[in-house]
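User: Predict the complex.
Assistant: Input components as received:
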Amino acid sequence: MAIFCRSASFAVRQAASFVFTGARRYSTDAHFEFILANKRGVKENVGLIQLNRPKALNALCDGLMQEVNQALDGFEGDSQVGAIVITGSEKAFAAGADIKEMQNWAFPACYSANFLSHWNRVSSARKPVIAAVNGFALGGGCELAMMCDNIYAGEKAQFGQPEILLGTIPGAGGTQRLTRAVGKSLAMEMVLTGKRLSAQEAMQAGLVSGVFPVQQLVPEATRCAEKIASNSKIITAMAKEAINAAFELPLAEGNRLEKRLFHATFATEDRKEGMTAFVEKRKVSFQGK
Ligand code: CAA
C-alpha cells in the first residue's frame, strides 16, 4: 500500500486526510517528492522507506528528512507494521547532508533554527529500523544509517564521515555513534582524514551486521524485518529500549533497567503465550499485549 506526498507542505496537508481505525492508519494514494514509502513482506508488516533523489545521490535536503520523519510517523502509527527498513539506491544510500543547501548558511541561522535537530526522529523510533545500505553512506548518510537499529550493507557499500574535507565536522551524531560502533582509534582516523570503510571493513569493525550481494540487500533486510515483525511488538519494543539504554547508562543502571523491563514482560499476555506455546509444543501466537 503506497503512502503519501509531493512536498513537505503537501505531506502535511495529506496527513490530515488519513483515516484512523483504532491504531491502524490508512493513506491516500499521493506520493512523496524525495522518498518512496510502502509496505512490504508477505503480511505487509514491514514499512519500507526508500530515499529517492537519484540526481543528488540522495543528498539529505531538509524536505527529504521531513518526508522521512513523516513516513516514520505513518509507520509507527500503523499497527500492522512491526519493523521498518530504510534504503536508498544501488549507487547511494545517501551522500550526506545537502552541501548546496548548506553552502551559504551562517552561524546565527544554524543556531537559531537548531539546524539538524529534527534528524533525530529516526533514533527515537519505537519500532525497530534497519538501514539497508548500498553504495555511498557518507556524512549525514552514514549518520542516518547509524541512527537505525542495525545496518545491513550491500557488498559495494562505502561508509565515511568526510565532513573534515569540507571544513566542518559531523553534526548528526557521527562523532558519537561511530565511536561507540567502531571504537575511538578507527573513528578518529575516519573523522580526521575522511577515510572510507568498505562493506567488508565495516563488517569487521562491527558497524554492520551483515553484507549481501547488491541486489539481495533489500530482500534480506526485508526478511530480517519480517522476522522481527513476527515477534511480539510490545516485547520487541522493550528489548530495543534495553539495548539502547546501553549507550546512555552506566553498567549498573543499565542492568537495573534491563531487570525492570524483564520483570515487565511478565505483565504481558505475550510472555505467558510465548512460554505456554513452548511447553505445549505448539506454534506461538503473539497479540502485542
Ligand atoms: N550534497 C549535495 N549534492 C551532492 C552531494 C551532497 N552531499 N553529494 C553528491 N551531490 C551531487 C553532486 O553535486 C552532483 O550533482 P551535479 O550533477 O548537479 O553536479 C551529483 O550529486 C552526483 O555527484 P558526483 O558527480 O560528485 O558523483 P561521483 O560519483 O563523482 O562522486 C561522491 C560521488 C564521492 C559521493 C561525491 O559526490 C561526494 O564526495 N559527495 C559529497 C560527500 C560528502 O562530503 N558528504 C558529507 C556532507 S556534509 C554532512 O553530511 C554534514 C553532516 O554531518 C550532517
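Residues 233-280 form a domain with the Lyase 2-enoyl-coa Hydratase; Chain  A, domain 2 fold (CATH 1.10.12.10).
Let me know if you want any component modeled separately.
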